[in-house]
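Note to self: the last two entries modelled the partners one at a time, which told us nothing about the interface. This time every component goes in together.
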Amino acid sequence: MTGPRYTDLVNSLPSTVPFVGPEELERSRGTPFRARLGANESLFGPSPAAVKAMQAEALEIWKYGDPTSHDLRAALADHMQARVENILVGEGIDGLLGNLVRLLVAPGDAVVTSDGAYPTFNYHVAGFGGVLHKVPYRDDREDPAALLTRAKEVDAKLVYLANPDNPMGSWYPGTDILAALDDLPDGCLLLLDEAYIEFAPTGVAAPIDADDPRVIRMRTFSKGYGMAGARIGYAVGAPDLIRAFDRIRNHFGMNRVAQAGALAALRDTAWLAHVQDQVATARDRIAAIAADNGLVALPSATNFVAVDCGADGAFATRVLDALLARGVFVRKPVVPPQDRCIRISCGRPQDLDVLAETLPQALAAARA
Amino acid sequence: MTGPRYTDLVNSLPSTVPFVGPEELERSRGTPFRARLGANESLFGPSPAAVKAMQAEALEIWKYGDPTSHDLRAALADHMQARVENILVGEGIDGLLGNLVRLLVAPGDAVVTSDGAYPTFNYHVAGFGGVLHKVPYRDDREDPAALLTRAKEVDAKLVYLANPDNPMGSWYPGTDILAALDDLPDGCLLLLDEAYIEFAPTGVAAPIDADDPRVIRMRTFSKGYGMAGARIGYAVGAPDLIRAFDRIRNHFGMNRVAQAGALAALRDTAWLAHVQDQVATARDRIAAIAADNGLVALPSATNFVAVDCGADGAFATRVLDALLARGVFVRKPVVPPQDRCIRISCGRPQDLDVLAETLPQALAAARA
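The predicted structure of the combined assembly is written out below.
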């Protein structure tokens, strides 16, 4: 009796996963973290109006969600100065990424990204047999010109660029992104990941026409709107591309509580402003804590701060492990030279108090 | 300037969708349905304990869900007399089906199902380039022997069988399913869809060892547990197969409100018993309404009833359209001779009052 016959592609895939979740780390530790600052979640929480909408919608959970996400898409179209036909709602950017890769990437097709950029994107490219070409960061930022040059060289179908960037928190003016599009090779789509855009200064959102067929933008309710656990994000692109997702997506895949929460969250602009304010304060506090310990915090247009630990990747990993051992969940870049940093999500004062308490101990342990 | 270059497979896919949702039909009508009896949702609602758990978890929505669904899997393992390693939690059976097909089916690979069985399964098979072979129903039931014979003939990698069956509501004793496994060809996996198992008589759940490598079972919180809008289901299978999903699934894809609700729903066995009782009452009432109108309701082990409209598919479609026009959302089988039926989900007394009121009018209109 033989087992199931997997595809050749599946047989070729490693059984690694993109990330280990904090709950699994907590179970290994045997005790909860004191500060959950590793996944760029919003410790300032979701809009109270979104919570209220989700609690009300829980009573309606017996019904499937609207597969067209009609009301939310209409609100998002308004929010993005686009038409409903430009908007796709999906199961977070992770889910949208998987479907976009599936639309474009057959085994052997070339894809370009930055070395050290979002691992879940790389996971999806590998999962569909794509060949990933990586371009190094330049001065701790992604390098759009190099990405597009490489895309031309390898005849890429898809290029990934995050603005602002994760894991470094760096950014470009949106007009730079728009200008770079002119160098995009024909038949290559730019995936512009704007997951952190709500934390960025004015002008970082690229002024791209929603109908521009060269680019698809992705945004999420996981970061600025504090709803990571709801798994809801959206894409903005030309109607033909948005419609193409209908050929493969899980049409009845959206949780209706998430749909209701996202709609309420989008309308609560006062809460978003409050979170933006709290995040700015937390970025300054993280930079101050870093400085108190002789470390340098990199500038950030996101809800996290990359802190340069002042030595190599092995040292930063020791700092990270020492923080984890002291109950502080953080993560770090993995590719040199960015791997000299640890990445700390913005937290509330009480979370950053724990960081201030434990960072000196972690540095001492890493140096011992 | 060219647009994105889709894969050849995507270019070959039609832009049809498996189902039009009731909200879209309502928007076309310009008015809500009076009775929502078309999607086999549970009009009796979710467990109040599940609602309470979801409402509490809404406050925690800023955190990603546990990618391992640890607590829920442990509870499901207990529920299924299995080990945690046998259990996979996913975004409803629809999501699990998509990933299972992706694991096994490369372009050109053979898959077997019944003609008229679950369209979303067929959608996923087409979406990964599989070649679908269909076996007719026999006496309004799926035909396991014919499915397995066909699987052998076409060297199928995967066979789909629902027990109880949708859209007819028919069923086999679980021991029949277990016995049929002996005829499953080597290297062919049986996908046993048990979405409706909570409504079936004792003995319909197949007594399959969770470690049996020949079969994967799928169940859901959408039907008996009344949480269709939460998008959460689970698969039970051999550990190697369950682990294989980790190579391709969206690890951070689960909504944490859904995880919390499912755990509470699973524990509220009293609510499930209440729903089972209400469903049994509703099935009898639908049969009585059918009989009052000279129609025959087929026996059902599910939360819906297929009602034979007594003529051909075109007539049943006219009945369906006339019910829709009168505010009653129902669906119907599409393949002859099962398409002579309409499929009516179990509802509360007030929902079935609307059915009793409108069915005579719909029949008159269909006959006119």
